[in-house]
């Protein structure tokens, strides 16, 4: 979502005004109301303030951690923090030019690997300083059962300098409402850290307008459920399957996916058990309903989509952490990193002319982290995304010489090392390998070596 140029300035002005409004009057100080005195203090290294801010922040290796400093009252009934990351990345592609593809850039998005690679364009060097985020978190009644949190995050996409609204939500007593990372995603299990801003191809990810509820922790058990505005990626509704009842109907408009507005929200949910932060397992599910027009029978129809996911972490010894995530479903392409945006989740069915099929798809990701010391960390991960039963429709939607919408599977591998110079500055070196297979044009690969010089504040 692109935002007006002056929105960030207005938000900063509002935050400053809010903090000033919390200043006590001299009369209040005389009456002993010192709880309203404003302090500028450390946040990340103070356990009380850190837990207050961490409580309703997004979690995962791609999120901004609790900032170093904050302003707050004595009793933490008001607290405000501003954090961010600036992450210039330098690297090169070998055997392809993924960096030059629209929608990719510094995101190692395997779905954009050109197939086949263009002669003379099989390598590319780049320096990119467009990878930056800033967030604001305001807390009221901090540390109490009634703690309320407002969180806003802005950033660039890595492809241009346009400022985008990435998150904007309010949380209270387990309820969260606004624009946020989908509840279907398991941020802790999704992946180890990467220089690559996007991450593995088979990872569950995505932003949604959502209302959700997460239960308190009952002896290691937790659960959550939500409602979110759905996004559907579907074909044009023209039929490209086998002859139907010995009748050639190729190219005919048998369904109209855009005839109706979608009025049934997606329903994500999960149940989790954890012994510690990195010894945990979660089972997630999502249900969705797609509404379309049957152009053969001239009637309204519904198609049910669903997905299930198993994810978690295993921490056998302190420096070693394993990550795992596996998702399978039908019609859930917008929730799987590489399949998001491909017009293949729903296509005309070959079984009954005029109906749509929710196509099967899956994503798996495995990763490992080893902390050599407090400053050194190494990581490795592998991921795969795959979709079935869409060959003719992948061909129909294929465009240009790179055939981006002709997607059958992709494989992603990353290995990296990070060195923490200070709590503010982190450098990293990473190797990436990606392969995209198509239904009709073979496969293409890309190798990337890149480094980061990231400031976190």
Q: What secondary-structure arrangement, pairings included, does this model have?
A:
Elements: H1 7-21, H2 26-30, E1 38-42, H3 47-54, E2 69-73, E3 78-86, E4 89-94, E5 123-128, E6 132-140, E7 148-155, E8 164-172, E9 175-181, E10 207-214, E11 221-228, E12 255-256, E13 267-276, E14 279-294, E15 299-317, E16 320-330, E17 346-348, E18 356-358, E19 360-371, E20 376-387, H4 391-396, E21 409-420, E22 425-437, E23 443-456
Antiparallel strand pairs: 1-2, 2-3, 3-6, 3-23, 4-5, 4-23, 6-7, 7-8, 8-9, 9-10, 10-11, 11-13, 12-14, 13-14, 14-15, 15-16, 16-19, 17-18, 19-20, 20-21, 21-22, 22-23
Span of the ends, CA to CA: 24 Å
Radius of gyration: 24 Å
User: What structural category arises from helix and sheet content?
Assistant: mainly beta
Q: What spatial order of strands do you see in the largest sheet?
A: 3-6-7-8-9-10-11-13-14-15-16-19-20-21-22-23
Shape: globular
Sequence of secondary-structure elements = HHEHEEEEEEEEEEEEEEEEEEEHEEE
What's the total count of β strands? 23
Give structural notes.
The protein is mostly beta strands. It has helices at 7-21, 26-30, 47-54, 391-396, and strands at 38-42, 69-73, 78-86, 89-94, 123-128, 132-140, 148-155, 164-172, 175-181, 207-214, 221-228, 255-256, 267-276, 279-294, 299-317, 320-330, 346-348, 356-358, 360-371, 376-387, 409-420, 425-437, 443-456. The strands form 2 sheets. It has a 16-stranded antiparallel β-barrel. The chain is globular and about 80 Å long.
């Amino acid at each position: 979502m692109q935002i007006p140029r002056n929105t960030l300035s207005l938000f900063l002005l509002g935050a400053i005004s809010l903090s000033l409004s919390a200043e006590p009057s001299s009369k209040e100080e005389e009456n002993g109301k010192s709880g309203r005195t404003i302090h500028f203090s450390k946040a990340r290294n103070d356990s009380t303030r850190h837990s207050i801010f961490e409580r309703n922040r997004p979690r995962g290796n791609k999120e901004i951690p609790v900032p170093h400093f904050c302003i707050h009252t004595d009793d933490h009934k008001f607290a405000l923090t501003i954090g961010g990351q600036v992450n210039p990345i330098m690297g090169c592609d070998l055997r392809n030019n993924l960096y030059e593809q629209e929608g990719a850039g510094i995101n190692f998005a395997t779905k954009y690997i050109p197939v086949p690679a263009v002669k003379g364009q099989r390598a590319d060097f780049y320096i990119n300083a467009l990878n930056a985020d800033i967030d604001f978190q305001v807390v009221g009644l901090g540390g109490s059962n009634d703690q309320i949190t407002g969180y806003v995050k802005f950033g660039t996409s890595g492809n241009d300098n346009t400022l985008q609204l990435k998150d904007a939500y309010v949380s209270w007593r387990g309820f969260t409402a606004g624009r946020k990372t989908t509840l279907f995603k398991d941020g802790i299990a999704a992946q180890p850290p990467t220089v690559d801003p996007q991450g593995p191809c088979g990872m569950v990810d995505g932003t949604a307008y959502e209302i959700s509820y997460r239960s308190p922790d009952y002896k290691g058990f937790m659960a959550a459920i939500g409602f979110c505005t759905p996004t559907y990626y579907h074909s044009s509704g023209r039929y490209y399957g086998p002859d139907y009842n010995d009748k050639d109907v190729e190219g005919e408009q048998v369904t109209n996916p855009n005839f109706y507005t979608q009025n049934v929200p997606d329903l994500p949910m999960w149940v989790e058990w954890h012994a510690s932060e990195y010894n945990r397992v979660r089972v997630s599910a999502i249900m969705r309903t797609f509404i379309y027009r049957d152009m053969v029978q001239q009637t309204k129809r519904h198609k049910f989509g669903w997905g299930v996911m198993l994810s978690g972490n295993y921490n056998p010894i302190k420096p070693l952490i394993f990550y795992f995530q596996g998702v399978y479903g039908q019609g859930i392409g917008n929730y799987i990193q590489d399949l998001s945006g491909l017009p293949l989740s729903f296509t005309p069915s070959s079984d009954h002319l005029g109906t749509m099929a929710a196509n099967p798809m899956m994503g798996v990701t495995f990763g490992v982290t080893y902390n050599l010391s407090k400053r050194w960390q190494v990581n490795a991960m592998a991921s795969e995304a795959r979709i079935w039963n869409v060959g003719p429709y992948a061909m129909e939607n294929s465009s240009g010489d790179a055939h981006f919408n002709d997607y059958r599977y992709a494989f992603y591998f990353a290995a990296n090392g990070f060195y923490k110079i200070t709590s503010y500055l982190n450098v990293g070196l990473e190797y990436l390998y990606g392969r995209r297979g198509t239904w009709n044009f073979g496969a293409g690969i890309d190798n990337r070596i890149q480094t980061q010089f990231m400031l976190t504040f």
